[in-house]
Amino acid sequence: MKLLLLVIFAGCFLSCSALIDPVTRISRPHVETYWESWDQTHNNYGSNLSTLPVVPIGAVGGFNVINLAFGNADATEDEVIACDISPDCVTPGLSDMKNNEAFRRAVQTIHDAGGFVKIAFGGENAVIPGEYLNQDELDFLIHRIANLIDNYELDGVDFTFKSCWNTACEHPENPIYLINTLRELMPNKIISLTFPGDYYPYDYNVIMATYENLDYVMMSRSCDQYLKYLIEMGIPRSKIVWGYIQGKRDNDHKPCDTLDLVYGVERVKAEQLGGVMTWSINSDTYYRGYAGNPGECTLYQTGQEDGTFIKTASYYLNHL
User: Fold this and answer.
1) Least buried of 42, 52, 216, 293, by fewest C-beta within 10 Å?
2) Which domains does the chain have, with CATH numbers?
3) Burial per residue of 59-90, b for 16 or more beta-carbon CB atoms within 10 angstroms, e otherwise
4) Alpha-carbon gap, residue 111 to 153, rounded angstroms
5) How far from 151 is each of 81, 269, 316, CA to CA, in Å?
């Protein structure tokens, strides 16, 4: 009888443990997006963090992971302390989040739906967080991020940047220290790194020195050549997320067509990548009010039915 129980337990352990990847902390290829926090004060699609289309990993109809854009990595200690004691401030950078209790409820709503919530620091045109901070400032930022994630029960952090990729990073040791130290403090939280995908990678130092402590890296503008660079660098395929920026961009032939997104999802499946990411849930809309005419494809809206791109990514990744 004991032997039978042991066999049953072992079989359950092997099958159950296969459901969760112990390296990435994400159970299977997922759909990820960003939330533009500055849209919180508007009444557009995606403005309300509590009403976003979130689904569990493997389901169709929405995203699985949301990144809250963007925390200010360069905020001073006085600014952070002032925010911490205010009921109308979550963290410097998310300036339009005026009610931290409502924010807690929104995070819980996403969790209840089976989703994950990360705080994103930086921005596509920003320097990599921590690059120009001194040691004391770096240590303060590290503990600020860890405390923020713990306080609001977030699932992790994303660092979004442009410098150190198409130009040399002046102080690569700083973001390397930031990421590796955060991993020590947060062994069970998600840490991701997001960078442009339309530049030749100039400096590999940050990724090569941190990828073992990163859950995954995300290319904001992906292409096959860029994917090849990452694979040749030795980044595991399961740690590469294919990114897609929707809306009208320079030199785009079909800027608001889902065909390019579908191609990216098919690459994720064919190459067994970690998932697909879009920017952003807010621009995935028919009409954003201030961003163009209804149904018009602009930099800030697709002009298609609300949620078309995120639902397309979810459907093609998990259903077809």
Assistant:
1) 293
2) 29-318 (3.20.20.80)
3) ebebbbbbbbbbbbbbbeeeebeebbeeeebb
4) 10
5) 14, 36, 35
- Report whether 74 contacts 118 (CB < 8 A): no
Enter the tokens of residue 275.
């998932």
Per-residue pLDDT tens digits for 182-223: 999 999 999 999 987 655 555 567 888 888 999 999 988 888
Q: What digits encode the pLDDT tens for the residues 145-188?
A: 999 999 999 999 999 887 665 566 788 889 899 999 999 999 99
Contacts (Cβ under 8 Å, ≥6 apart) of 178: 129, 130, 138, 141, 142, 159
Instruction: Show the beta-strand stretches assigned E in the chain.
Output: 30-36, 65-71, 116-122, 156-160, 190-195, 216-219, 240-245, 275-279
Is residue 65 within 8 A of residue 32, CB to CB? The reply is yes
The pLDDT of residue 130: 86
Task: Compute CA distances 99 → 36, 79, 218, 253, 272, whole Å.
Answer: 16, 17, 30, 41, 40
The tens digit of pLDDT for each residue in 46-83 reads 999 999 999 999 999 999 999 999 999 988 899 999 99
Buried b / exposed e along 193-216 (16+ C-beta atoms within 10 A): bbbbbeeebebbebbebbbebbbb
